[in-house]
Write a structure and sequence with these properties.
Number of helices: 3
Number of strands: 33
Largest sheet: 5 strands, antiparallel
Strand content: 35-45%
Structural class: mainly beta
Strand order of the largest sheet: 1-33-2-3-4
Shape: globular
Helix content: under 10%
């Protein structure tokens, strides 16, 4: 099973998480716990002030409504000549260090440096861990290229050049004159294949985030590339477990389509644009059931601050094209969207408690329809990630940047043996990977519930943001 390190970009929680979790890594600038508390409190107050409603008018920032072009013809699916196994023989990890170099590690072995160009920006492993896809980016973050290399460091080759990206069509709502670069935005391997699916995002001279809502396919072995859906026809996308279906998401609706582009089922769920109080447009994140027979999704209120009593809605989406059904609702905290467990039977969510200026939250767990909610703990907490068993989980104390693990229905928790930490992703029911933000160098580490964690690799002392991807047997 392949799991990706997900970096949440919602602005309010990002402000807190960056201060609390991603601490400076220079020897001379290591903050004390008191510094962390002050930084978090200051950021929270500033964020709440910035997000407060304007007395002279509404501040809701809504995503632009795209003009959707006529559907284009759908190309034949890309087929690789080298099919691989669906899973690797052992745990495989690929990671980027703080110097912008690319490494691989297989359990039982030692880390291997496979690309040392110092400009690696993202990393992704194929479902069997045989291929590593990575993005290289120029120092000004304008020129992007996409590459592939085998896990053992052989057969490195260019998939999509900067010129290739710049030749791709743009969304009809933007002008080519305003675009200085184009890069992949949302990338996923098609389950069980060596085909990478991605959409694109243009870079502008000034600030602004825009997604072309297109969909491309590229074979990582041959480099063959095909457009599946033109700009404005797709969005963010999620393949079903058997790769036969795709759910397409925009800031206002969710649709379904067969993976070959046929049988489009438009607008099975429509929702109002969710204000993020930033340039970032909220895209819902539906999850497929393990057997691919339905999806569930959480839709937050249109305006958290403008309507404090509004709740997050819980929907179930059938795959036959019929409308989504409302299952229930939850009182989630502003800009906290909730997290379904892998089996979709539970929801973890954070609820604000008391005066917003106090930054006090309760961590709660509810059934899939919002019923049976129970508080697990209370404090300056945020949910981190679910274990593969849909029972254990990790959560972070924003005031101390420490991460702990817990179990639904049980009392108490176990703190990781090192902190500050970030990026906890579960390998199995009781094992996990994470990044220890230590000094003088952060580390990629592996932990087991109740045991001391072990270091996989030091991540260097540069100024890049370390990240990793992994696949398991």
């Amino acid at each position: 099973m392949r799991r990706l390190l997900k970096i949440c970009l919602a602005v309010c929680i990002l402000s807190l998480s960056v201060l609390a979790c991603t601490l400076p890594l220079n020897d001379d600038n290591s903050p004390t716990p008191e510094n962390i508390d002050d930084m978090v409190a200051t950021a929270a107050a500033a964020t709440l002030t910035a997000m407060a409603p304007d007395p002279h008018g509404d501040v809701t920032i809504e995503a632009p409504t795209p003009t959707v072009p006529e559907p284009t013809s759908i190309p034949d699916p890309i087929m690789t000549e080298e099919p691989g196994p669906l899973t690797p023989a052992e745990l495989r990890v690929s990671f980027i260090d703080k110097n912008g170099n690319l490494w691989t590690w297989a359990e039982g072995g030692s880390p291997a440096l496979i690309v040392n160009t110092g400009d690696i920006n993202t990393v992704q492993l194929s479902p069997d861990g045989e291929w590593v896809v990575f993005e290289r980016i120029s120092a000004d973050y304008i020129e992007t290229s996409l590459w592939a290399i085998r896990f053992n460091g052989s057969e490195e080759h260019l998939l999509i050049s900067h010129a290739d990206f710049m030749s791709m069509p743009l969304h009809p709502d933007i002008s080519a004159d305003s675009v200085v670069g184009l890069s992949p935005y949302f990338t996923k391997f098609v389950p069980g294949t060596y085909t990478l699916a991605f959409n694109t995002s243009p870079q502008f001279e000034g600030p602004g985030l825009f997604i072309n809502n297109d969909l491309w396919l590229v074979d990582v072995i041959s480099g063959a590339r095909r457009p599946l859906l033109a700009p404005g026809q797709a969005g963010n996308f999620y393949y079903s477990p058997d790769s036969s279906q795709i759910v397409l998401v925009t800031p206002t609706e969710i649709s379904l389509i067969n993976s070959d582009g046929s049988n489009r089922r438009n607008s099975v769920l429509m929702y109002s644009p969710v204000s993020t109080y930033s340039e970032y447009a909220y895209y819902a994140e539906p999850l497929w059931s393990p057997d691919g027979s339905f999806l569930r999704v959480l839709i937050p209120p249109q305006d958290f601050l403008g309507d404090p009593g509004a709740t997050t809605q819980i929907y179930q989406i059938p795959i036959d094209g019929s409308p989504a059904s409302l299952l229930g609702n939850l009182p989630t905290a502003p800009l906290r969207y909730g997290d379904f467990s892998p089996n979709l039977n539970r929801i973890a969510y954070v609820q604000q408690v008391g005066d917003p200026a106090d930054n006090l939250y309760s961590l709660n767990f509810a059934n899939f329809d919002g019923s049976g909610s129970a508080e697990f703990t209370r404090g300056s907490f945020a949910f981190e990630s679910w274990s593969t068993d849909s029972n254990h989980f990790a959560f972070i104390d924003l005031s101390s940047a420490s991460i702990s693990t817990g179990e639904v229905g049980s009392v108490g928790s176990l703190a990781l043996d090192v902190s500050p930490a970030t990026g906890v992703n579960w390998i199995s029911a009781d094992r996990y990977l994470f990044i220890y933000q230590g000094l003088p160098e952060p580390q990629l580490r592996m932990g087991t519930i109740g045991l001391a964690s072990t270091s996989i690799a030091n991540l260097g002392s540069g100024d890049k943001f370390p990240q990793y991807d992994f696949v398991t047997p």
